[in-house]
Design brief:
The complex is a heterodimer.
Chain A (H helix, E strand, L loop, with lengths): L4 E5 L5 H6 L6 E16 L4 H4 L2 E6 L2 E6 L5 E6 L14 H10 L5 E16 L5 E12 L9 E8 L4 H13 L3 E2 L5 H8 L21 H23 L6 H19 L6 H17 L1 H11 L1 H7 L2 H4 L3 H23 L1 H15 L15 H26 L2 H20 L6 H34 L7 H36 L2 H11 L17
Antiparallel strand pairs in A: 1-8, 1-9, 2-3, 2-6, 3-4, 4-5, 6-7, 7-8
Helix pairs in contact in A: 6-7, 6-13, 7-8, 9-12, 14-15, 14-18, 15-16, 16-17
Chain B lengths: L1 E5 L8 H14 L4 E5 L5 H5 L11 H4 L4 H5 L1 E2 L5 E4 L8 H6 L7 H7 L7 E5 L6 H9 L2 E6 L3 H17 L6 E8 L4 H13 L3 E7 L2 H4 L1 H4 L3 H4 L4 H17 L16
Parallel strand pairs in B: 1-5, 1-6, 2-4, 2-5, 6-7, 7-8
Antiparallel strand pairs in B: 3-4
Helix pairs in contact in B: 1-13, 6-7
Chain lengths: 527, 262
């Protein structure tokens, strides 16, 4: 099938006349003028844009296409635009988007008004063989009222390919320019003052190996503070749970940097902010646990025998109420003077350029040396702990191992720009796999215990309570079975991670191979 | 994807008019729809102003491959494509007879469109031979238009007997009354009797109307050239019943829209 193509019309171009001139070849049937409002959507973290996809709603149709392409991949009919993908009608579009968007909310980016008239080009049988559509587009979002843009679309009809080529050729000859590459979506984003990809939780800072460690680390921490602030502003709207999640990850990374990269800042400063960020992290602990539980509602229900499935609803209703309380508590925490002070002082510290204090012995060491040293040290401790924990078969300790892995991964991500990209990516991916496995194991353990602890809080009368307790019991045993299966695989994942290949790679990248000239103020790296 | 054959082993019962209007309505309600014109008389093709003829002739339905795909034509309506008919399809029965897996050829050809269309409607010629068996194998549902006359009812019984004998699932055969004249007492009486005697009789009928015959003049579905007419409303009712009673377990909607893109 042919593809739709688009030509820009300059001001003053008489498209009616151009189309009229085609009447030597076709009879032309003009359709009614149609007006449509079109809205474009993406998630806060630009998940669709990052996959070069464009999602838009035009009237009752929701369509997905590729960036700079003029044909839809999917188009479905909807009655109202949902915030979450799970609320879309069951369709291939939903399937396709679920894996990309997951639990994030769809936010409207901008709107435009389209005014279009279609011209059907008919052959001798009065059959439409090509459609030309004249479209005028006005962007409705944006500070300045931009002049409308005029286009003519050449939309081939399947099975009649020659006509599109012929007419496109004629339009080109009359001086029109094909504008397939300048996407209306990108223009609209620009008009609305929105930058695609202006938010990412990835640490994307190019470090110079010779930069003194304190400055290099500060630049990482400044970028983390940016993520904290951006999400903090969105959390209150309660659009989706990922704002809290991203906020927590940035806080955790900040804490990890403070504790894993040693003797970098004056010890008083490090101690204060370690404590402060531990406080910030705790603010949302309960909220996040509840979010995770509620997000898994459908998955959990599917694990329970059908006869008991609906009896577990009271648990989720109760958790939802608890969640809205936990959310309010978190918002209060974010608005508290203590939180404001922490963020204000932290920002001031990161932007200050005091000379290194006497107890910040690693401040002046080139970052490459400190990065190698910190990562390698953490790696060795993870390997050691892993062997010990797996040998002793202690579930609670598996959680400790997971936290150690996470810390190691954060370090590697902070400094990934200092190492060969392919190699460090491989190692991070391997580590992530191990950490996910351990993480899932731990989540299951927490999720098993959670309903046990709150079962007695459920506000139910005896009759209903019994059924609900039975449903909870069956969920717990399902989760436990799953956990046992995971446990068996975690030993294997760990062995994979400790493979000789990985060990060699860790050594190659991070073990100190030769002594670099020391920074004049510091001397050796302090442990 | 759901496949629906408009089939009858009796001629002149309003098959093509039903196939053309139902596929138009299926597309209008947002389903990506393909109408296959299997009748060598190519009336459905004519109604959509498409020239009959297939590039590889009857091989399209015999050998499959991408031949069917290459022959599909877009109609004048959004979401609705047509696989035109070809005069050589008149020999299809004879040709099928010489082949291996002669009863499952059509099924294989339709399967390749699984990803592209939500609904495929077949406009079938009058036959109760190998081609008919191909159709029974290939589709999810069979819809038989029936004029409330004794001969029509008799032919329908013959069809059910044939299917039972050959072991086809008669549960996928549905019927609706077509070309009904409510002035005729016999039509009314037979409708009541048939609804009692047979399963899967849709509670919706198409009256005998001159508007439907005018499709030949306008060369458009009646629901397109005269959307407010009684005929148009009758097909809309029928389509609603088909959706509710036959396609209710209908899978995902998916449409690839040929209209302008933003």
């Amino acid at each position: 099938m042919g593809y739709n193509s688009r030509f820009s019309l300059l001001a003053g171009y008489d498209i009616q006349r151009s189309i009229g001139l085609l009447d030597d070849l076709y009879s032309i049937k003009k359709g009614p003028e149609e007006s449509e409002r079109i809205s474009f959507y993406d998630t806060f973290d630009w998940r669709l844009f990052n996959k070069s996809l464009v999602l838009y709603q035009a009237g009752s149709r929701l369509c997905l296409r590729q960036l700079t392409r003029n044909n839809n991949i999917y188009s479905i009919h909807i009655t109202s635009m949902p915030v979450f993908i799970r609320d879309l009608p069951k369709s291939r579009l939903r399937e396709h988007l679920t894996s990309i968007i997951e639990t994030r909310a769809l936010l409207k980016l901008f709107e435009m008004q389209s005014l279009s008239t279609s011209y059907s080009l008919l052959n001798q049988d009065e059959k439409t063989v090509l459609r030309l559509v004249h479209e005028e587009i006005r962007y409705l979002t944006g500070k300045h009222k931009a002049a409308p843009m005029n286009y003519v679309w050449v939309n081939p009809i399947r099975g009649y390919p020659g006509h599109a080529r012929k007419i496109a050729g004629r339009l080109k000859d009359s001086g029109l320019e094909a504008s397939d590459k300048d996407d209306i979506y990108l223009k609209g984003l620009k008009a609305a003052g929105k930058g695609p990809g202006d938010y990412s939780t990835k640490i994307d800072i190019q470090l110079n190996p010779d930069t003194p460690s304190d400055n290099a680390t500060k630049s990482i921490l400044i970028s983390l503070l940016g993520i904290i602030r951006t999400n903090e502003a969105e959390i209150e709207k309660d659009l989706d749970t990922e704002f809290v999640h991203d906020f927590r990850v940035a806080v955790r990374r900040t804490r990890s940097a403070l504790s894993q990269i040693k003797y970098l800042f004056p010890s008083k400063v490090t101690a204060r902010f370690k404590k402060d960020f531990s406080f910030v992290g705790k603010l949302s602990n309960e909220l996040r646990d509840l979010d995770v539980y509620l997000l898994k509602k459908d998955e959990y229900k599917s694990k329970i025998p059908p006869a008991l499935r609906d009896h577990i609803n009271p648990l989720f209703e109760y958790l939802r109420k608890k969640r809205s309380k936990a959310f309010q508590t978190f918002i209060q925490g974010l608005k508290s003077p203590r939180y404001a002070n922490i963020i204000k002082d932290w920002e001031a510290f990161l932007n200050s350029s005091q000379p290194a204090a006497a107890d910040a012995k690693n401040a002046g060491v080139p970052i490459i040396d400190l990065a190698r040293h910190s990562i390698h040290k953490k790696y060795r401790s993870v390997i050691k702990a892993g062997h010990r924990i797996l040998k002793n078969n202690d579930d609670k300790k598996l959680h400790v191992l997971r936290i150690q892995c996470k810390k190691l991964r954060y370090l590697m991500e902070f400094f990934s720009s200092l190492f060969p990209p392919k190699k460090i990516k491989t190692l991070i991916a391997q580590l992530k796999k191990l950490q996910d496995n351990l993480g899932e194991f731990n989540d299951l353990r927490v999720q098993e215990e959670y309903p046990l602890n709150i079962a007695r809080e459920l506000p139910l009368t005896n009759g209903r309570l019994n059924n609900t307790l039975m449903a909870i019991g069956s969920l717990i045993s399902a989760l436990e079975r799953e956990r046992d299966m995971l446990k068996a695989s975690s030993a294997k994942t760990f062995t994979d991670f400790t493979s000789p290949d990985n060990e060699r790679l860790f050594k190659e990248l991070f073990a100190a191979k030769h002594q670099r000239p020391f920074h004049e103020n510091t001397g050796n790296i302090q442990q | 994807m759901r496949t629906l054959a408009i089939y009858s082993n009796k001629g002149g019962v309003g098959k093509t008019a039903a196939a053309v209007n139902l596929s138009y309505l299926a597309a209008r309600t947002g389903n990506s729809t393909l109408l296959c014109d299997l009748d060598p008389q190519s009336s459905a093709t004519y109604y959509f102003r498409v020239k009959p003829g297939l590039k590889s002739g009857a091989k399209v339905l015999i050998k499959g491959g991408d031949r069917a795909y290459k022959n599909i034509k877009g109609t004048d309506y959004e979401n609705l494509d047509l696989l035109p008919s070809d005069f050589s399809l008149r020999n299809l029965d004879v040709t099928f007879d010489k082949l291996k897996r002669s009863k499952k050829r059509l099924k294989k050809i339709l399967r390749q469109f699984n990803d592209q269309y939500d609904i495929i409607i077949l406009d079938c010629p009058v036959t109760i031979s190998l081609l008919a068996e191909n159709i029974f194998h290939a589709v999810d549902h069979i819809l038989v238009p029936m004029i409330p006359t004794t001969l029509s009812v008799r032919t329908f019984k013959q069809l059910l007997c044939f299917c039972k004998k050959k072991g086809y699932d008669t549960g996928k055969i549905n019927t609706f009354f077509s070309m009904v004249d409510l002035h005729k007492k016999m039509h009314k009486e037979l409708m009541v009797a048939v609804s009692k005697d047979f399963n899967n009789v849709l509670r919706s009928f198409i009256p005998y109307l001159s508007q439907i015959e005018k499709m030949g003049i306008y060369r458009e579905p009646v629901a397109a050239f005269s959307p407010q007419s009684t005929a148009s409303k009758a097909y809309e009712n029928l389509w609603a019943k088909i959706q509710k009673s036959i396609l209710s377990a209908h899978g995902p909607h998916r449409t690839e829209s040929p209209s302008s893109i933003r």
